[in-house]
Request: fold
Amino acid sequence: MVYIEATSSEKFEELFNKYKSQKVIIFVSSMTSPECKKILPSFKASASSHKEIAHIQVDIIHCFESKILSGNINHVPLFLFFKRSKQIDSLIGVNTNNFSKKVITFAKQK
Reply:
């Protein structure tokens, strides 16, 4: 799997449902946030390195319309880690070292 950008709430839900039986990292971002722009290359690199994990980016605007994420979003950048459609972890912020560590730990989980 690779990096995928969901351009609407419908597309996000379609992608999430497609990969929900697997591991998924959701990157909730804002196109106006400098912090989100800063961490995006790390998110894309993670997608290239961890092809067993679906990496889905969705703009915060679409999250409010999504039944899957409604009510869970208070900050950006936000990373949500799902395994078999259940959220098991999250990370707020742009610390690339923390993000990399979380992804490695997540990738090792069975």
Summary: DSSP finds four helices and five strands in the chain. The first strand starts at residue 3 and ends at 6. The CA atoms of residues 78 and 92 lie 5 Å apart. Helices lie at 9-19, 34-49, 60-65, 96-108.
